[in-house]
Design brief:
Blueprint (H helix, E strand, L loop, with lengths): L5 H4 L13 H9 L6 E2 L11 H12 L12 H15 L9 E5 H13 L5 E6 L4 H8 L3 E6 L9 H10 L5 E5 L11 H11 L5 E5 L14 H4 L4 E6 L11 E5 L2 H15 L4 H13 L3 H22 L12 E2 L11 H12 L1 E2 L1 E2 L11 E4 L4 H18 L1
Parallel strand pairs: 1-10, 3-4, 3-5, 5-6, 6-7
Antiparallel strand pairs: 2-8, 7-8, 9-12, 11-12
Organism: Companilactobacillus keshanensis
Keywords: Aminotransferase, Pyridoxal phosphate, Transferase
Cofactor: pyridoxal 5'-phosphate
């Protein structure tokens, strides 16, 4: 195996070196080889892709759809995205000029940040939040400004936002993610309007990651793009709604002026998504809008079970209104940090969960449980958590 030459060992992008590996994946890998462990770590649906969606991918291969597509994505898919957003969320985008099909929501986040950021720019991130936001900002030479929401039931308040913008008036954007990973919180239309009133007319983009929008258990999801379309970059995709994580199809919807610039970053980075995945996604949005319904019912049953079990065991838990996570607090009497608790639970209790500090400083003292797995696994994990907790008391 080759070893990197000393002459080039120190040559490279210095911004990448301080950034560690993805903390969620790193912890999941660390505990993966513990014999008999039940892992509630990853946010990946345990459902299969709907059959009609798979057949659309197969047909595209059989039809020799194997060449480069338009860089923004195939026309049929962009039209399907536009129609879906208009029908479900009452937000309206021209499929020709205001939609980009990306390699998952992950690329959509990176492309969006790359489009607006210059070195040293500050980006606001309400935390706890998906760690990739902070990592991408740092990788691009920016400064993530974490806004601790843990004292406000994990929701950003207008007062807190006003306070942060007074301190950092030159912030370039704020990243909103709801339903949230890791907390599962959902904002109401009234709450979104209150935040929009603070943001409106300021030189501040809203990058709204709504990848879990089809997994809302109470009131219907309201997109930030409906409230403040002229300043919002909407990010979504098919990974969670149709269990298509491996297909890697996400998208950006935004005003034309933003998309004109973002499409340059996108095309220079990835050229275009793959044909089979795009045709599958088009089928999902044209003929599979009811596909998430049964998944959502199953997730809701799992959520109710996990929340009750957690609260009964003394792990204070806010009942989430969306996504497929709960974010319980670690009892202070245990005297353990998030990492210490989760590592101990994995090794001694044979249950895998994610330490809360993987989601920013505001996540310390909590842990994330994913219920995107079978009820059998969840019930066994709760049984083991009960036994583990009894030993700590």
């Amino acid at each position: 195996m080759p070893k990197l030459a000393k002459s080039v060992a120190e040559v490279g992008n210095k911004l990448t070196r301080p950034i560690g590996d993805d903390k969620i994946l790193m912890f999941n890998s660390e505990i993966a080889n513990i014999p008999g462990i039940v892992r509630l770590t990853l946010g990946e649906p345990d459902f299969n892709v709907p059959e009609h969606v798979k057949q659309a991918a197969i047909k595209s291969i059989e039809d020799n759809q194997s060449h480069y597509t338009p860089q923004k994505g195939i026309t049929g898919l962009r039209k399907a995205i536009s129609n879906y957003l208009a029908k479900d969320y009452d937000v309206h985008y021209d499929p020709e000029t205001e939609v980009i099909v990306t390699i998952g929501a992950t690329e959509a986040i990176y492309t969006s940040l790359s489009t607006i950021m210059n070195h040293g720019d500050k980006i606001l991130v309400p935390t706890p939040a998906f760690s990739i936001y902070m990592d991408d900002i740092e990788l691009l030479g920016g400064v993530p400004v974490e806004i601790d929401t843990s004292k406000d039931n994990f929701k950003l308040t207008p007062a807190k936002l006003e306070e942060v913008l007074t301190k950092d008036p030159d912030a370039k954007a704020i990243i909103m993610n709801y339903p949230s990973n890791p907390t599962g919180i959902v904002y109401t239309e009234k709450e979104l309007n209150a935040l929009a009133n603070v943001i409106r007319d300021k030189s501040l983009y809203v990058i709204s990651d709504e990848i879990y929008s089809q997994l809302v258990y109470g009131e219907k999801h309201v997109s930030f793009a409906k409230i403040l379309p002229e300043q919002t970059v909407l990010i979504n995709g098919l990974s969670k709604s149709h269990a298509m994580t491996g297909y890697r199809i996400g998208y950006i919807a935004a005003p034309k002026e933003f998309v004109d610039q973002a499409s340059k970053v996108h095309s220079f980075t990835v050229t275009c998504p793959s044909n089979p995945a795009q045709f599958a996604a088009q089928e999902a949005l044209e003929n599979g809008l009811d596909d998430p319904i049964e998944m959502r019912k199953t997730y809701e049953e799992r959520r109710d079970y996990v929340v009750k079990e957690m609260n009964d065991l003394g792990y204070k838990t806010i009942k989430p209104d969306g996504a497929f996570y709960v974010f319980p607090a670690i009892p202070k009497k245990f005297g353990l940090t998030s990492e210490e608790f989760c590592r101990k639970l994995a090794k001694e209790g044979k249950v895998g969960v994610v330490p809360g500090d993987a989601f920013g400083e505001a996540g310390e003292g909590f842990f994330r449980v994913s219920y995107a797995t079978s009820m059998d696994n969840i019930q066994e994990a709760m049984k083991r958590l009960k036994a583990f907790t009894a030993k700590l008391l």
